[in-house]
Amino acid sequence: MLKLTFARGDKNLLGVSITIFLFSVLLVVPALSQQSSTPRAYLGFDRNDYPGDAALLALRRSFSFAGYWLGPPPGAKSNSWSGKRELVRSLGFGFLVLYSGPQSNELQQKWSEQHVFNNLKTRLSSARKRGASDARQATAAAKKEGFPSHTVIFLDIEEGGRLPAVYHAYLRSWVDQLERAGYRAGVYCSGMPVDEGGGVTIITADDVRKNTGKRGVVYWVYNDACPPSPGCATPQNPLPPSASGLPYAAAWQFAQSPRRKQFTARCAATYSADGNCYAPSDTAHSWNLDINSADSSDPSHGR
Predict the structure, then answer these.
(1) Could you give the CA distance from residue 70 to residue 68 in angstroms, rounded to a whole number?
(2) Burial of 155 (0-12, 13-18, 19+ CB in 10 A)
(3) 119: which residues sit within 8 A by CB, 6+ positions away?
(4) What's the pLDDT tens digit per position in 204-249?
(5) DSSP string spanning 148-179?
(6) 165-180 and 204-211 helices cross at what angle (nearest 10)?
(7) Is residue 12 part of a domain?
(8) What is the CA radius of gyration of the chain?
C-alpha cells in the first residue's frame, strides 16, 4: 500500500487549500442554481395571413414558433394557413394554434332564430351550445391538419375588459368539449387593465381565470403597452411571459401590427415608419407581424 507522508508545513498548506476550495464551491453552486432556475423564453410571430412558403425560411432565423389558424381569422372568410402545418413543422417551428371566437354581441341578441324573446336563461343555453359546436369544429380542423391530441387550441378573444355571463357560459362549454375530444383549451385575450370607474379595474385574463374555475386553461395574453412591452424587438433573450404582469401567462404578445399609438408612444422608435413590426431579415417590409414570447418553443405542443 502506498503511504503518503506530509511535513507539518505541508499539512497546514493542504488544509488551507481545501478550505479555500470548499468556500469557492459554496459561492459558485448557488450562482449556478440561480442561473438554471431562470426560465428561458422563446420568440414567435403571428399574423392573420399566411406569409408564403419562402417567407418561412427567413422568419425561422428570428422565431421559434408561429401562430397557426384553424379557421378564418377575425373578419376573414377564408383561411390561408390551411394545409401548411407540415411545412411549418418541417422547418422547425413550434405552434400557437388559434381558433376565432365570437363577439359578445353575437351571443347577446335580443331575439332567437325562432323569434322568441331571448331571456338570460335562453341566451346562456344558446351560448353553451355554440361553445360546444365551435369546439367540435376546431378539433375537427386540428385533426385534419395533423395536430396531435393534447395540442393546446387557443380561442381568440379580441374584446378587452369584463366579459358578459353569456361569454363565460360559451367559454366553459368550449373548454369542456375540447377536453372531451382529447385536446387542451387555451385563450388568447387581453392582459391589460381596463378602468371600469369607481377605482375598479379589470383584466380580461383574470376575469376568464376566475370564471373557468379549476379548468386547466392555458393563457396567451396581449399587452403591447410600453412598458412592460419592449416594443417591436427580437432580442436573443426575450422577456418571459410573466413580464407581461401576469405570472400565469404561458405566452405574451408584446408587439402588434400596426402599432396602437395610445399604448406605444414610449417605444414608437422600435416600429417601422409605417407603424408595423417586421422581422430583422425582412428588409423589404413584406410581412408585418405580431411578436410574442413564450416559455416553450412549442407553446401549443403541436409538433
Answers:
(1) 7
(2) buried
(3) none
(4) 999 999 999 999 999 999 999 999 999 999 999 999 999 999 999 9
(5) PTT-EEEEE----SPPPHHHHHHHHHHHHHHH
(6) 60
(7) no
(8) 25
| CA pair distance 125, 113, nearest whole angstrom | 14
C-alpha angle with apex 249: 43 to 35, nearest 5 degrees? 65
DSSP state of 275: S
Is residue 300 in some structural domain? no
Task: Indicate the pLDDT class of residue 118, thresholds 50, 70 and 90.
Answer: low
- Torsion sign over Cα 83, 88, 91, 92: negative
Domain containing residue 174: CATH number = 3.20.20.80
Q: Which three cell numbers stand for residue 146?
A: 395533423
Collapsed DSSP state (helix, strand, coil) of residue 188: strand
Contact (CB, 8 A) for 252 and 284:
no
The answer to whether the beta carbons of residues 156 and 188 sit under 8 Å apart is yes
**109 found inside a domain:** yes
Q: Measured between alpha carbons, how far is 186 from 209 in angstroms, rounded to an integer? A: 11
DSSP notation for 249-291: -SEEEEE-SS--HHHHGGGGGGS-TTS----TT-TT-----EE
Q: Which three cell numbers stand for residue 177?
A: 368539449
